[in-house]
Write a sequence for this structure.
């Protein structure tokens, strides 16, 4: 088990949480161009840096999914930043 998060549904914990929190998919910010490894760090960046709150699907509105994958090259060539 990668983390100690508790969920009401074991099925959600195994599937959805693992996919969104523990896989690298590289999301680029449309506003400033910084790149983040997952939805949670990207959402935190947009909320704190750009003061954007209340957006239901922040990734599709303010982000660009760049693929990635564990240890893979996304081919983008851009500098990566993981600031929050």
């Amino acid at each position: 088990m990668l983390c100690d998060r508790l969920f009401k549904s074991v099925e959600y914990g195994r599937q959805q949480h693992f996919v969104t929190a523990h896989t690298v998919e590289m999301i680029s910010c449309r506003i400033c161009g910084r790149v983040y490894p997952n939805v949670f760090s990207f959402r935190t960046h947009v909320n704190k840096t750009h003061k954007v709150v209340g957006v239901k699907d922040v990734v599709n509105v303010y982000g660009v999914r760049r693929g990635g994958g564990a240890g893979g090259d996304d081919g983008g060539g851009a500098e990566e930043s993981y600031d929050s």
User: Anything to note?
Assistant: The beta strands are 27-29, 35-36, 63-65. The first helix runs from residue 10 to 14. The radius of gyration is 14 Å.
